[in-house]
């Protein structure tokens, strides 16, 4: 069984509507030789001529008139179908499953995702805030947003913004243990770590860069619990600005070594490499990058 030559049908109809091969060439940007070959191939399949060339352009044969009456509605329906689904695919829609770290997700991303959902109601977000490393493909995630240094992977990464990091402690701890005057003084202080491998803190100040090894008095693998530990006076720790800000403004925490700065952490989007990104994912990435640009 031979498949119908839909491309030949479309070319034939467009030539007839244009009035000549030359006019069709100008209208549709296809070489006249290509158009002619399409018609010849179609005529061979149908077993007779469809068009006759005249000094004024073209003339339909009896076969051509009959064929045009039957195939023009098919071509018009096919064009309408393609336009409909092309427009549908360009509008962000469908389910989009994403993951983000708990603290960054709750304090920074959640309000933005709610705004995105209002702006794009056809996109159905499935959001999971977790600090565990998700398996994107195996678990069906379209997007993950993470803070800090990321391990090498086959995923595509896109930097969305930066997150300010602050060295903080409670006033009670500073009064009891003394205020460090330089990064080197931290060696004798109780230091709270989010992960045990993060034992070296990098600082930048007027005197240049300093790298200080710290000995953790406690490892707290949750940002909110880490903040609670600092509020309880258990030691010095690094918190993101979005999490420490309210406690600093309220005097419940104080900044330690304000003359020294920690490098900001990167907020990075991770997604699988595909030939064509979905409109929903592309639009969400653009939306988040625009909202997070310059945000600390």
From TrEMBL:
Q: Which family is annotated?
A: Belongs to the LysR transcriptional regulatory family.
Name of protein:
HTH lysR-type domain-containing protein
Molecular function, one GO term: DNA-binding transcription factor activity
UniProt keyword DNA damage present:
no
Keyword check for Transcription, yes or no: yes
Q: Name one Pfam family in it.
A: LysR_substrate
Fetch the Gene3D superfamilies from UniProt: 3.40.190.290, Winged helix-like DNA-binding domain superfamily/Winged helix DNA-binding domain
Lineage here is:
Bacteria, Pseudomonadati, Pseudomonadota, Betaproteobacteria, Burkholderiales
